[in-house]
Amino acid sequence: MYATTDTLATAPAAQGGRSRWLALYTLCAGMLMIVLDVTVVNVALPAIQDDLGFTSSSLAWVVNAYLIAFGGLLLLAGRLGDLLGRRNVFVAGLVVFTAASVLCGLAGSQEVLVIARFIQGVGGALTSAVILGMIVTLFPEPREQAKAIGMYAFVASAGGSIGLLAGGVLTQAISWHWIFFVNLPIGVLTVVVALRYIEKDKGIGMSRGTDVPGAVLITAALMVGVFTIVKPAAELGWTAPRTLVLTAVTLVLLAGFIVREATAANPLVPLRIFRSRTLTGANLVQALSASGMFGIFFLGSLYLQRVLGYDALEIGLAFLPTTVVMGLLSVKYSEKLVMRFGPRRPLVVGLSLIVLGLALFTQAPVGGNYFVHVLPVLALLGLGGGICFPALMGLSMSDVKPEDAGLASGLIGTMGEVGAALGLAVLATLSATRTASVADTKPALEALTDGYHLSFAIAAVIVAAAVAIAVTVMRPAKQPADAATETEELVCEAV
Fold it and tell me: Source organism's superkingdom (predicted)?
């Protein structure tokens, strides 16, 4: 089940009831600002390209610079929260992210914008990596923790679709600069409220975890890995020499990190945390589900834009049902489901609904009708996400010691970020390859739709693999007969 008072209670848990909930709202506000930034910028890319003169290839660095810093530093940032105090790292991240947002808005050249986006990624990693660890310490009681994590999961998973709408409104009504300037008042207010309502924690101290070689190895491995996924793999293909070389470098760095952590006196990432199959399974499920969901939101947006002819604002409005359904379930009902059935059953059922939605999307035709071919898919994705993601977040922290809460929080974030980048690169590449292979025999829109259908089907298979892991790897230890019976019950309920 969820974390108990004995395992995760620390100083912040002693805060009064009202201030704890205000602290939660502050943490969610910080997370929302980070999540919104990704999709808000995607919507504004054409305007940024026209204004600053980016080429099609160089424009990708507006996104990639952020992703490389963010994905590369999440794990390190989470561990720094354990060592230096999670509130300190959270506030520092907000300050860095807000200052970089202002620099992005003021950017008058390509170089300044790309550098500012990298700094934004640093701030985003520091801010978001420690949030989940702070929540489980603020709310050690299982029922309150389930409710708090439900609210966090909604912000973390549904904020992207809100960003599509906000980006369309700001870009069309004012200018692309304001997608960054809007972070200034939000960031300043969040810092002020955080200092007021989030109780300061001391951390366990650098002497308990100073591991500079380990930090260098894992940060370099993640940055090179994310760069490989979003750049050469996406543009040149997975078998291109440059992609293979960088993949090999990533694997060597990861191997070096594992050896270092197994032998270091004070490792940055104690490998003992992976002995928990609940934590390990939760991170695998996070990577797979993020691969399927993030890629589909991106390719689904392209389907609406290129096939159905939607503009940016219409795309944002089209995805609103997912946000509404996910928000209603995450905030209002996820806690009740988890307390009634435990976290694993909602996880399996929610993931299964996502698989069903993705499979249904493979039937969307060239002349598709939104209410017939798109809305049911988005409703299923929202329903499944609202049921499964709060349970997944809770499971990822359920076997974590107090001194490792920031690390576990950063780990689940890292797996989601890497999974999303990998899923997007793979699905986008396969979609483009499929479209190119049938372009000579089918009209352009039909060829595009064929490519999207293939990606939707593969995404369904990826999330189905997450269902299999949730049913097997995350199964509690039982007698064989009891385990087999529970597996059958979970599969039947999911179906």
Answer: Bacteria
Residue with tokens 């650098």: 206
The structure tokens 């988890």 sit at 338
CATH of the domain at 112: 1.20.1250.20
Which of 267, 283, 300 corresponds to the end of one domain?
Answer: 267
**Torsion angle in degrees (nearest 10) through CA of 230, 40, 326, 315:** -100
Name which of 210, 31, 41 is nearest 130 in CA terms: 31
Backbone φ, ψ for residue 319 (5° rounding): -85, -5
Asked whether residue 230 falls in the same domain as residue 110, the answer is: no
Q: 210: buried, middle or exposed (CB in 10 Å: 19+, 13-18, 0-12)?
A: middle
Residue numbers in the chain where pLDDT is lower than 70: 1-17, 56-57, 157-168, 171-173, 206-210, 312, 475-495
pLDDT tens track for 419-433:
887 887 788 888 888
Using the 3D structure, point to which of 243, 267, 291 is the last residue of a domain.
Answer: 267
Alpha-carbon gap, residue 125 to 220, rounded angstroms = 15
Which amino acid does the sequence have at 207?
A: S
Look up residue 108 and give its two tokens: 């008058």
Q: How many separate domains does the chain show?
A: 2
What's the pLDDT tens digit per position in 287-346? 999 888 877 777 888 898 889 988 767 777 888 888 788 878 877 787 888 888 888 899
Q: Which residues contact 128 (CB under 8 A, 6 or more apart)?
A: 30, 31, 34, 74, 93, 413
Residues 304 and 215 in one domain: no
Q: Provide the residue range defining the domain that includes 247.
A: 210-267
Pull the structure tokens for residue 209. Answer: 């975890």
Q: Are residues 324 and 350 in the same domain?
A: yes
Q: Does 417 share its domain with 394?
A: yes
